[in-house]
Design a protein that fits this description.
Strand order of the largest sheet: 6-2-3-4-18-17-16-10-14
CATH architecture of the largest domain: Roll
CATH class of the largest domain: Alpha Beta
Number of helices: 6
Oligomer: single chain
Distance between the termini: 74 Å
Strand content: 35-45%
Largest sheet: 9 strands, antiparallel
Shape: elongated
Number of strands: 27
CATH superfamily of the largest domain: DNA Polymerase III, subunit A, domain 2
Structural class: alpha+beta
Helix content: 10-25%
Radius of gyration: 25 Å
Length: 377
C-alpha cells in the first residue's frame, strides 16, 4: 500500500473516524483504524467497537492499493502534529511509514484479518436538515440520563410519523420533547427507535454542524437493530437501545390554569447569580406575583441571595423551587427571547415553552417539563 494525501484532509478524517474508539477495547484490534486504499484514488478509514462504527472517505493519490490496521489514537495524534505538507503513507512489511516534509514516523500494524466486519449502513429512511437536527438534539439530550446503570434512560426515544419526527428524553426529574420535520424516503413512513443520547450528540456535532442534509437509515425488526447517519462522505452506525421506554408523553399536563412569562436572558443571568449561594442539592425558589418573579436561594444562617425580575402572571400567585442546574439547562435549551412557565400545582411538574414576544403565542415544538423540589414555606 502506498498513497499521498493532504495533511489537513488526513488529520480531519482520522480524528473523526477515531473519535469513538474505546479507551479499554475488548480486543486489541478494536483500538485500530482500518485504512483501505483503492485503485480509484479513494481512502476508506473505518473504526468499530461492536456498538458504534464510523467510516470516512477521502481522495488521495494511490500508487499501490492495499489495506492496513494501525492504532487509531496514535495515528490521529501524529497526523494533527505533522507540518502542513503532503503526507506519504507506505506499508513496508509489518510497519507503516508516514513521511511529511522532514518528519518521519513508523507505526506497527495490527492483524487486519482479525478485524471484525463492519455493519452495513441501513437503507435510506429519510433526510433531515443538519442545522435542525443539531438544534433538536441539543435541546432534548439535556434531559437524558447520564447514569449508565439505567441504560434505557440514557437513550432518546425517536418517533417518526410521515414528515414529523418527535424526540423524547427523560432522567426521571425532567422531560424534554422536540418536534421537527424531515423528508422521508417513503411517504407515510412510521417507526419508533431508542437511540443513545451520546450517539445523537456525536452526530449533531460531527455531521449536523455543517448545515447540509444528513441522510438517516433505520433498521428495526431485522435481527440487528441499527441507526445510521451519513453526510459529507462520512458514515456512522450505532446499535439501538433495547427495551420499552416509559410512556412519558402522558406526563405533560392537558391544561395549565396558571402561567407566567419572563424574558429568558435576564432570567438565566438572575438564576446564575442567585444559585451561587445554593449549597449542594439545595434549590432555587421562584415566587410569582402580579408583575414580577422573585428568585431566592439560601436560608437560615447560610449565605442568601434574592433578585426580582419583571414577569407577566396569569392566574393565582404561585411559588416553586427547582434544582438550579436543571432550571438553567431548560432555559438555555429554549433559544427564545421569552420563557413561558405553565403550572397546574406548586408541587406538580412545570412546563417550559418559548415564545418570541411577551404577549405572543408559545411555541410548543419544544417542551421542557421539570419536577419541582418541595420546600418549607
Amino acid at each position: 500500500m502506498k498513497f499521498r494525501v493532504e495533511r489537513d484532509v488526513l488529520a480531519d478524517a482520522v480524528t473523526w473516524t477515531a473519535r469513538t474508539l474505546p479507551t479499554r477495547p475488548p480486543a486489541p484490534v478494536l483500538a485500530g483504524v482500518r485504512i483501505e486504499a483503492d485503485a480509484q484514488g479513494i481512502i476508506n478509514l473505518a473504526s468499530f467497537d461492536y456498538e458504534t462504527s464510523a467510516r470516512s472517505e477521502i481522495p488521495a493519490d494511490v500508487a499501490e492499493p492495499g489495506t492496513v490496521l494501525v492504532s487509531g489514537r496514535l495515528l490521529a495524534e501524529i497526523s494533527r502534529a505533522l507540518p502542513n505538507k503532503p503526507v506519504d503513507v507506505t506499508l513496508e512489511g509489518t510497519k507503516v511509514m508516514l513521511t511529511c516534509g522532514a518528519s518521519r514516523f513508523t507505526l506497527l500494524t495490527m492483524p487486519v484479518e482479525d478485524y471484525p466486519a463492519l455493519p452495513t449502513m441501513p437503507e435510506l429512511t429519510g433526510t433531515v436538515s443538519g442545522d435542525a437536527l443539531t438544534l433538536a438534539v441539543n435541546q432534548v439530550t439535556v434531559a437524558a440520563s447520564k447514569d449508565d446503570t439505567l441504560p434505557l434512560l440514557t437513550g432518546v426515544r425517536v418517533e417518526i410519523e410521515g414528515e414529523r419526527i418527535t424526540l423524547l428524553a427523560t432522567d426521571r426529574y425532567r422531560l424534554a420533547l422536540r418536534e421537527l420535520t424531515w423528508t422521508p424516503a417513503t411517504p407515510g413512513y412510521s417507526a419508533v427507535a431508542l437511540i443513545r443520547a451520546r450517539t445523537l450528540n456525536d452526530v449533531a456535532r460531527s455531521l449536523g454542524a455543517g448545515g447540509g442534509l444528513v441522510n438517516v437509515g433505520l433498521s428495526t425488526g431485522a435481527g440487528l437493530d441499527l441507526v445510521g447517519f451519513e453526510a459529507g462522505g462520512r458514515h456512522t452506525t450505532s446499535q439501538l437501545v433495547d427495551g420499552d421506554y416509559p410512556a412519558v408523553r402522558r406526563l405533560f399536563p392537558d391544561a395549565t390554569p396558571i402561567h407566567a412569562v419572563v424574558a429568558t436572558a435576564p432570567l438565566i443571568e438572575a438564576a446564575k447569580r442567585v444559585s451561587l449561594v445554593a449549597e449542594r442539592n439545595t434549590p432555587i425558589r421562584l415566587s410569582f406575583t402580579d408583575g414580577q418573579v422573585v428568585l431566592e436561594a439560601g436560608q437560615g444562617d447560610d449565605a442568601q441571595a434574592s433578585e426580582a425580575l419583571e414577569a407577566v402572571l396569569v392566574g393565582e400567585d404561585i411559588a416553586v423551587a427547582f434544582n438550579p442546574q436543571f432550571l438553567l439547562d431548560g432555559l438555555g435549551a429554549l433559544g427564545t427571547d421569552f420563557t413561558r412557565l405553565s403550572f397546574t400545582h406548586p408541587n406538580k411538574p412545570v412546563e417550559f415553552t418559548g415564545q418570541e414576544s411577551l404577549d405572543g403565542e408559545d411555541d410548543s415544538s419544544y417542551r421542557y417539563l421539570l419536577v419541582p423540589i418541595r420546600f418549607a414555606g
